[in-house]
Design goal:
five-stranded mixed sheet, seven-stranded mixed sheet, single chain, 10 helices, disordered C terminus
Length: 281
């Protein structure tokens, strides 16, 4: 996903002089071509993520579109005060592009796990939260981000994820992607677990269960109409995400279902405790 996103952004960077890219001492080879195109719009701020976000806010106030890149815990948790006060409070055109969503950096330990980031980012009033499911979606998100002029958090896994699309999909920020239309059971997934959801749906069909399958690539703003339509026509809804059960996609869905008086069963599947992928409400 990461490579697809920045390959797409590279072409946009070449043509759009408003784009500025910042990194916190990561992605050397990834950004070589950005430096070749225009080194005055690319900055490596070093291991200083909070400074990076503050710098991004200042550059954005000068009329630029700024992209900040790092591993998710360093991009989101370490810098939360700067994101909240410098970027979101002023509704600035800053894109936070993070890799390592969920357990992508599993062997590096808890310091590198991105398990609470969606909860933090979707709590901010102006922040858009997008979780592409494969490299094709990541490239499309890079395109869409150009015409998006408020804060955005793009949550990606890392690289070499399997494709679920042959080419760039038709995709709109805030509009859920229905991959299959079924009945009675709905599976709503985000990020690289959309691929897992497809495999689960295939297994269920062998058992005579034909679930609706939804790729909820935008966690905020959540597609309220899609959730309400699903609640009206399905008795069982499952959310699937690589994030803690508190505050992520499942929680966002539960908030909507509570408001509309859903009478069925919601089961949230995600990270509970340290590493187990199970949970419910």
């Amino acid at each position: 996903m990461r490579n697809a996103f920045f390959e797409e952004l590279e072409g946009l960077y070449r043509d759009n002089k408003r784009i500025v890219v910042l990194t916190a001492d990561l992605g050397y080879r990834l950004f070589d071509k950005f430096c070749d195109i225009d080194p005055e719009r690319f900055y490596n701020v070093g291991v200083a993520e909070s400074d990076m976000v503050g710098i991004a806010a200042g550059i954005s106030l000068c009329g630029k579109k700024v992209y900040c890149y790092s591993i998710i815990p360093f991009l989101v948790m370490r810098t939360f005060e700067q994101i909240r006060v410098d970027v979101d409070a002023h509704n600035l055109d800053v894109k936070l592009v993070g890799v390592g969503g969920g357990l992508a950096y599993a062997l590096e330990g808890i310091t590198h796990h991105g398990l609470e980031d969606i909860a933090l980012m979707r709590a901010l009033p102006h922040m858009t939260v997008v979780v592409p499911a494969d490299p094709m979606e990541a490239a499309r998100v890079a395109e869409l981000s150009i015409d998006h002029h408020t804060p955005m958090f793009v949550r990606m896994s890392h690289s070499k994820e399997p494709r679920i699309h042959e080419g760039k999909p038709e995709m709109k920020i805030g509009e859920a992607m229905f991959l299959r239309e079924g009945r009675e059971v709905a599976i709503i997934a985000a990020g690289r677990l959309v691929k897992t959801a497809i495999e689960v749906a295939d297994d269920l069909r062998k058992e005579g269960i034909n679930p609706t399958l939804v790729n909820m690539h935008t966690v905020k703003p959540l597609d309220l109409k899609a959730i309400m339509d699903i609640s009206a026509n399905h008795s069982f809804i499952f959310s699937l995400e690589e994030h803690r059960l508190e505050g992520g996609l499942g929680s966002a869905i539960a908030e909507v279902l509570t408001e509309v008086g859903f009478n069925g069963k919601l089961k949230k599947i995600g990270i509970q405790g340290d590493a187990s992928f199970i949970g419910s409400i």
